[in-house]
């Protein structure tokens, strides 16, 4: 009988941990509704503008937008057989791609962020899937509901 109780307790604990991690992920939604890159400090939000420009917004500890300092960003996307490299320029308080991204469904993206000249480059790989998520109502590339 004790084994069933242990298994039940374990399943309940795992369910609570899963619910807590989903609630924690929801706290990291970007201010523009984009994908938050947590591997870099300060965190950054990748957002695709309606004009298809890639926009990087750096975030403080509260998730609010801050101006970029010495960060540099580059992006590789498009067909894997003929990838396109995009560079970024400062536009106001964000970094924006110089050219709009190609209109390609589920475009593979390799985003490279160098937090400072002496820091190591951080790379984030994902698909730029623009279908709306049924759970969180964000585009799939920025989904925070963990489905």
Describe the structure.
With 147 residues, the chain is α+β, with helices and mostly antiparallel strands. The chain is built from one helix and nine strands. Strands 1, 2, 3, 4, 5, 6, 7, 8 and 9 form a nine-stranded antiparallel β-sheet that branches. The longest helix is centred in the first third of the chain and has 25 residues, at 2-26. It starts with a helix and ends in a 19-residue tail after the last strand. Mean pLDDT is 85; it is low at 14-27.
Output the keywords.
147 residues, alpha+beta, signal, 17% helix, globular, single chain, Immunoglobulin-like, nine-stranded antiparallel sheet
Tell me which CATH architecture applies here. Answer: Sandwich
- Cα distance spanning the termini: 34 Å
The number of distinct helices, counting runs of at least 4 residues, comes to: 1
The biggest beta sheet, please?
Answer: 9 strands, antiparallel
Low-pLDDT ranges: 14-27
Oligomer status: single chain
The amount of helix comes to 10-25%
Count of structural domains: 1
Question: How many strands?
Answer: 9
> pLDDT average, as an integer?
85
CATH T-level topology: Immunoglobulin-like
Q: What is the C-alpha radius of gyration, as a whole number of Å?
A: 18 Å
Give the structure's gist in a few sentences.
The protein has 147 residues and is α+β, with helices and mostly antiparallel strands. The chain is built from one helix and nine strands, in the order αβββββββββ. It has a single domain (2-142), classed as Sandwich (Immunoglobulin-like), CATH 2.60.40.
């Amino acid at each position: 009988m004790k084994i069933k109780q242990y298994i039940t307790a374990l399943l309940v604990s795992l369910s609570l941990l899963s619910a807590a991690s989903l609630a924690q992920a929801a706290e990291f939604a970007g201010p523009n509704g984009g994908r938050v890159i947590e591997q870099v400090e300060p965190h950054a939000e990748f957002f695709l503008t309606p004009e298809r420009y890639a926009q990087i917004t750096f975030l403080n500890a509260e998730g609010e937008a801050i101006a970029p300092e010495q960060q540099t960003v580059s992006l590789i996307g498009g067909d894997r057989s003929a990838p396109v490299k995009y560079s970024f320029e400062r536009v106001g308080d964000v970094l924006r791609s110089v050219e709009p991204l190609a209109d390609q469904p589920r475009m593979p993206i390799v985003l490279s962020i160098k937090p400072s000249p002496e820091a190591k480059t951080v790379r984030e790989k994902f698909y730029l899937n623009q279908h709306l998520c049924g759970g969180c109502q964000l585009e799939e590339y920025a989904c925070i509901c963990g489905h």
